[in-house]
Design goal:
216 residues; two-stranded antiparallel sheet
Length: 216
């Protein structure tokens, strides 16, 4: 079950890398991000195949995490009188909580930009001219979306929780594959923390740059 949890999480992690690279186009002229988004949606078969695959990976990941959490709880029905978590990190003790927060963040992110629910329905009015047609102006949607301080604050908080979640998840996955933690050089911890930090900074610079009016 831990291997399934790690493998489904790895799929989501790889998607995050691709998603981050696509989002970085907000730093380029409007043409690039808007055309990128347009061509992604112009092939619904491929788009929905990827979406359903990611949805399946997310469902497997969440359900397996909850099952493992229940197994751990059932293994010790009587809690410790004094909890001294000398070995367990803060991230490992709060994985189920951080995972649920990340899940709420994913749902909000879809509601915010993909579904454009109230009060973000006006995003549908943002259009960009491409040849002889008008396509959705995704770059303007992103910029206007992160000019809201409450939205930006929630994204920053959620991305910080995601960073803590990823940092432990990647390390645990490498350990589940059989790599032994070396006290002299815990390379799997270094690699996991480095990748988590790269994703964290890579995603964080976008809302922060927009909120600080560094991107127009």
């Amino acid at each position: 079950m831990k291997f399934i949890l790690g493998l489904s999480g790895l799929v989501l992690f790889l998607f995050l890398i691709v998603h981050m690279l696509g989002n970085w186009q907000v730093f380029l002229p409007p043409y690039y991000m808007n055309v990128y988004a347009y061509y992604l949606k112009s092939n619904p078969v491929v788009l929905w195949s990827v979406r359903l695959f990611l949805l399946g990976a997310l469902i497997v990941h969440v359900s397996t995490a909850i099952k493992l959490w229940k197994i751990n709880r059932a293994a010790r029905p009587q809690p410790y009188k004094l909890l001294l978590p000398n070995q367990a990190s803060f991230e490992s003790r709060t994985m189920i909580v951080s995972g649920l927060i990340v899940l709420v963040f994913i749902l909000f992110h879809l509601y915010h930009f993909s579904f454009k629910g109230p009060p973000f329905g006006f995003f549908k009015n943002f259009l960009f001219p491409l040849s002889k047609q008008m396509i959705p102006d995704v770059r303007t949607m992103v910029i206007v979306g992160f000019q809201n301080p409450w939205v930006t604050l929630f994204y920053v908080f959620s991305l910080s929780v995601l960073f803590l979640h990823l940092r432990h998840a990647l390390e645990s996955f490498l350990n589940s594959l059989g790599f032994v933690n070396s006290k002299s050089l815990p390379w799997e911890k270094i690699v996991a923390h480095a990748f988590a930090l790269i994703l964290y900074v890579g995603f964080l610079i976008i809302p922060m740059a927009i909120f600080l009016r560094l991107i127009h």
